[in-house]
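Q: A reviewer asked whether we had any structural model of the full assembly, not just the individual parts. We don't, so I'm hoping you can provide one. Inputs are below.
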Amino acid sequence: MAGWRERSWWGWGWADEAFDDDACRQLAERTLRPWMPIDGTVTPIPYDPVLDRPRLIPPSILEEAFAPDSMTRAAHSYGKAYRDVVRALHGRIENPPDLVAFPRTTHDVVAILDWAEACDAAVVPYGGGSSVVGGVEYRGAAPWISLDLSRLNRVVEIDETNLAVRVQAGVFGPALEEALKPKELTLRHFPQSFEFSTVGGWIATRSGGHYATGPTRIDDFVEALRVVTPAGPIESLRVPASGAGPSPDRLFLGSEGALGVIVEAWLRITRRPAHTASTAVTFPTLADAVDAVREIVQSGLRPSNCRVLDPLEAMLQAGATDGQARLLLGFESPAFDVQPSLDAAMSLCTAHSGAALEKSTVDTWRGSFLRAPYVRDALARLGLIVETVETACTWNRFEALHAAVIAAVQAAAPAKVAMVTCRFTHVYPDGPAPYFTIVTPGRRGAEVGIWDEIKHAVSEAIVAAGGTITHHHAVGRDHRPWYEQQRSPLFAAALQAAKDALDPRGILNPGVLI
Amino acid sequence: MAGWRERSWWGWGWADEAFDDDACRQLAERTLRPWMPIDGTVTPIPYDPVLDRPRLIPPSILEEAFAPDSMTRAAHSYGKAYRDVVRALHGRIENPPDLVAFPRTTHDVVAILDWAEACDAAVVPYGGGSSVVGGVEYRGAAPWISLDLSRLNRVVEIDETNLAVRVQAGVFGPALEEALKPKELTLRHFPQSFEFSTVGGWIATRSGGHYATGPTRIDDFVEALRVVTPAGPIESLRVPASGAGPSPDRLFLGSEGALGVIVEAWLRITRRPAHTASTAVTFPTLADAVDAVREIVQSGLRPSNCRVLDPLEAMLQAGATDGQARLLLGFESPAFDVQPSLDAAMSLCTAHSGAALEKSTVDTWRGSFLRAPYVRDALARLGLIVETVETACTWNRFEALHAAVIAAVQAAAPAKVAMVTCRFTHVYPDGPAPYFTIVTPGRRGAEVGIWDEIKHAVSEAIVAAGGTITHHHAVGRDHRPWYEQQRSPLFAAALQAAKDALDPRGILNPGVLI
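A: Here is a predicted structure for the entire assembly that you could use as a starting point for your response.
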């Protein structure tokens, strides 16, 4: 982590990037006043939390690997969802970890798991802590340890011949890219949480990168893994591909800390893009933009950026006041000119009434994208409910799903006023991954309950419309009920059996997945 | 299957495509006489096999789903590896299935599994029977049923909006493409066994398609699966992507019939290519060709064909007599001109002393590729040992692996004379998938033992050199010892636990994977 800068213990990112009280009010005036009532009261940033004493005392031999102080424990109690930020803001640290462990070596991880098994303590692996689904928040009764992997932070080896990097699980996005940059290499995996999430967290949650198509999900980048389970270590073979049985890596991709602690990975990297071409496109309706994008991705073109914004998202996030939909379209390559690809994609847009715009929209949108979690925290302090939900569905289901999500939010929001905007984060030949941002007035002190009801309604709507309960936010604890609806009970039984083999005492992230 | 044409029960493919005795001799004279001694004796095609009576009697309610005749049982005793063909040629049907079942519906599959459990009979799922790794050959003592899925042969639904096809597991390659062709669609998955293998077999074995890069392995095409296990059915959600837990589909991809019977799949399809560009390139050495190909695939270019042939392979399979290596290079797209991609790839070739050749080499090679299994059978009848092995490794390991495989064959072959040729079937940014063809004199009656020793030596060499024991031939029974060396014991324990949950009596393909 970057030296002197302090991470916010209650909200997103860096403490010094949070909006101050005046900035919170100005933000609300500027963007939300026309839409919904705002009382202008700004919840103060909470004082340092005071917690009960830990129920666990670290063994002396491992003492240096543990932090028992209240601030560290409070900061590891929750992820960074809206409901986490609001609870922290109101000083509600419900079930903090008894200890936070910072293993410095794989051997430490083994020792901590052994000790936790002996104490019947739960262990919740923790990468950057950016979970928005209750993935790092233990809700059981046992004493528990948050296993923060951020000291396993070495970029071990950069292999320029095979374009791969061997990296420990606790390396954050920026540190990895810094290590690759001098060699003109990149992982090219930029989730919105990039600055505050780790390689291990990406793998455990099957994170989606910033890019719209092609290799962008962490699943595609994993070449081999090292995992420590309570039953022992597992290492997969480092080869470009194999047909030997079910893939071991795929068992741990999405395992969310419940099957083992990912300690190291070989990841496929690429040369940095030397050629780029991009534009913004305007469409009379969202349906036109969707049709154009479907044609682009089904043609075999693989834009790096192919982000559809519905008219409301385009207005709020990209300053578009014409009531039209937007497409942010871009191509890149390390080796060859991509203008022909952009031209080919544009001609498909034109056939669906698309018109090219000047490029500035893209930059506006990108800045807004990276600031979004800070904005979320600011609006939360003003008493607003601000959260995002995401899914993926086949093309034929999108229109109904989009309508159903908006209707569900508006029906469930007590104020019956809600802004619901939508963009595509990723597009596949067989369907898009829509991402919704929801803003609605809250009621001071009741925000979490109100949000939980909206989330319930939206999740029901997504499942009914044939979308997955999560495309890249993972399951965590918050998506469990709908994950269970969408997962065959027998597959759950197979996963449970695998977990029993790897984690016989069930100490790893109990309550997640199974 | 295509009406009146008869499948060979002992060898590859169609009975009427097998070389007759004279053609066998001519083939040997033409291609092998300069290389190794050939006695000219042609083992006759065996008479119809006579087998012991089945130890199982089908229940009357399912009688129509079973075939108890000797010819059907013999044809389901082995796959189509060299060692299978030789044993059949010599009339050695060692452990034929007691019954062959041809379920007509998913319900039949359920009923057959229930009945097999009640009888303690083993069940070996059988697609097209093209396994070359002992995948469909049960070697245990229990009575057993070969579960031939070829009557589950419906292309259920073609979804043009989302570019996907819903297809039953027993559909063969040509039937699937025939169904897609009127809509100008294709799965674009053409393993060498295409004509004689099924959708279910491809998924169970993680087959590799004909194409060199991009989406070509069946893993990438699976959108959702329906599987029948002895414990019940499993169905995965049909969405373009999901981040919800470990992927259920990936548990069954590569499960080789040991975890469940795949009965249906949604597969991603694509529009047929409208633009193609291809060439053959000659390189002074194999190393030059390898360097050029590595640069091509690491540049982000995704050729559909990118097949390196070493000088010996180039001579034998593509008629090249200049002692140089060859690269068969091609691009295709349904939507845009690919000549610029070919030009970009060619300029990388030129930088490594590559020179474009006229295109005919490509066609020569392709014809030879499809005829290869028939040639193998003809040479087997002449007493020669003819087989292929394949792997994948990172780029830096290829040169040593290539040398080690050749050395291992030549050391293990009793005659100390062996032709070992190599080509790349697939190339990934992090490494190639080399494919070796081995021809060496046998000793009548001892061929299987000789081959097994060579195979053992080659497998040891591949594992020692850091290659996977199989890139697309699957594990089966023949690769088990090396698979176990390369797989973490704990992952094996997790797989075994999952199997116990899905197949509690262990009836499914015992001896495979776990």
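A: Points you may want to mention in the reply: Residues 360-381 of chain A form the longest helix (22 residues). The longest strand of chain A covers residues 431-441.
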